[in-house]
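Narrative summary of target 7.
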Amino acid sequence: MDQNQFSSSSSSRSRTAASLQHTQHVTPVGVPSNLYALYHAALQLKQRNELGVYLMNLTVSDLLYQASLPLWLQYIFQDDDWRHREWLCQLCGFLLYENIYISIGFLCCISLDRYLAVVHPLRFTSLRSMKAAWMVSIIIWIKEIAVGVVFFHHKEVTRDRSNRSVCFEHYPMRSWEHPVNYYRFTIGFLLPLAILSISYLCVLRAVGRSAGTQPDQKTRIRQLVSSTILIFLVCFSPYHVFLLVRTLFERDCSFITGIFNYYHLSLLLTTLNCVADPALYCFVSEGARRGLYRVLVRPLSKIIFCCCRRGNASPINPASDSHEVATEENNGNPAVTLLNHTFRQNSNT
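Modeled conformation, tokenized:
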């Protein structure tokens, strides 16, 4: 074995080990947390809260992608050698693509819904109805499925120099992928990032101007907003940056060789949204957090640390926490309930 082969083999083993650790941690945590998120989304639907529509669609997208993770895990175990039929490769790649952009789409829907609820609590009520939420959700699914069909009608299993079957990726990148990737970067990433940033800045400004909000409540809302933007950037920014770099500069295999491990790491980071989504948008209320601690965190902590501590969490009533955002009238001034806290907007804001 020459030096190049040794470097390639060593790099491959290192990448495979890191990928396995990452995927094996996402699967056991992501599935129960998303099932728990699905339960709370159903409670919100029962209360006719349009936020539950977006949460349920977001969770369904995550669960569909996690159903394909065993095949991706086997693919990584076999050192990036796809040994199944090509249609399975197309399906798994399709689910990966759909999870990224459907998740981004529903994150934008949730951010806009909260923007309207907090900044304009008594206006645009028709946009915050159950009917509008279902219509928007259907449009997002149809749009992303249509784009995915265009992207995945090409041959997805190719042979590399070692005669291994590579799934989902082409090295070097094909010419037909360039316009698709420009679309993914601008419409699929930059535009949603702008929507998230602007809407949440407006939410922060509205909360800051509210005289009825306690300082600790303002801090909690700011932390939620900051965490949402941070997780969005961590999960999706690296992949889209490398996607753009590959599209601009990759013309042969020598270029991808230098960034291959970093590109794969950025792709693996996108799977973290399967854990982050329910944590951000379903576990923000006190009842949901206590329930999560009781059914998931406490048992895992006992297994990991071999502890016999007993939690003192009080019983929860999930139905009472099903509305994250609601509005009411009080002495002529609109009051907004956000994350089970109420603050009053001054009439001059």
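Residues 1-14, 310-344 have pLDDT under 50 and may be disordered.
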